[in-house]
Design brief:
- The longest helix is centred in the N-terminal third of the chain and has 34 residues.
- The chain is globular.
- The protein contains eight helices and six strands; from the N terminus they run βααβαβααβαβαβα.
- It is an alpha/beta fold.
């Protein structure tokens, strides 16, 4: 089934089974992945080297888009979900060992993925603009996929949730791994294209195309909010 013609790969060009965006608030949860300072905020570097300046410049479109687009959209989604008594859940990268030995192999790789954050590291906190409330479920992971690395699947099942709205970072890494695993666990997944983000526009759009119509349905924030309101009226 398709709900739109955006991000349609060759696999699904000939699928003419169209449906609509439908949300059952009682059986749907919002999942916000890795909205942490280390993942989405500009690092503060005093007297950066030339190489560090160049890297910051390369990442500037990401930080700006996250601030100008993703955060406002997530705030709207969170507000709507809370207003309709829907579960709001979070996942964040956080290990137990300061040595990092408890991390999965993907989190031990050198380069960008080498996140080493433990409980007392302020970089690992969820950003203030999207901070969880007291009874929101927040799971810690040492993996990319939320489902592989935590008991989130069990928690969702226990709460009677069969549909997950997925948002966060990075679209092509932790978000993608989670979406795929949720689908394999037979959850319905709505991936919000303007409430998640990858390092570049190209990576973001490529992954949306790879995921759409099989592992999830890719929709916009406004399409989601409209569906939630329509469910309430119904």
């Amino acid at each position: 089934m398709k709900v739109n013609d955006r991000y349609c790969s060759m696999y699904y060009e000939d699928d003419f089974d169209y449906g609509t965006v439908q949300i059952d608030p009682k059986r749907t949860a919002l999942l916000i992945i890795d909205a942490q300072y280390a993942c989405v905020k500009r690092p503060h570097i005093e007297q950066p080297t030339a190489a560090e300046k160049e890297r910051l410049e390369r990442w500037e479109p990401f930080y700006r888009t996250y601030e100008d687009v993703v955060i406002p959209n997530l705030q709207s989604i969170i507000r709507s979900c809370r207003g309709h008594q829907m579960e709001v859940t979070y996942a964040k990268i956080q290990g137990f060992k300061k040595s990092g030995t408890d991390r999965s192999l993907v989190q031990k790789m050198t380069g960008f993925n080498e996140f080493l954050m433990t409980e007392d590291d302020p970089r690992g906190a969820i950003i203030e603009e999207l901070a969880p409330e007291k009874e929101d479920i927040v799971v810690n992971k040492t993996t990319d996929s939320v489902i592989t690395g935590t008991n989130m699947r069990l928690l969702l099942h226990n709460m009677g949730v069969d549909t997950v709205i997925v948002t966060g970072t990075m679209t092509d890494q932790c978000v993608s791994g989670t979406v795929r695993d949720l689908a394999d666990e037979s959850f319905h997944v709505w991936l919000i294209e303007d409430a998640c983000l990858a390092a570049t526009k190209e990576l973001h759009e490529h992954e949306l195309t790879a995921l759409n119509n099989i592992y999830c349905h890719v929709i916009t924030t406004q399409e989601l909010l409209k569906a939630i309101e329509e469910a309430e009226r119904a």
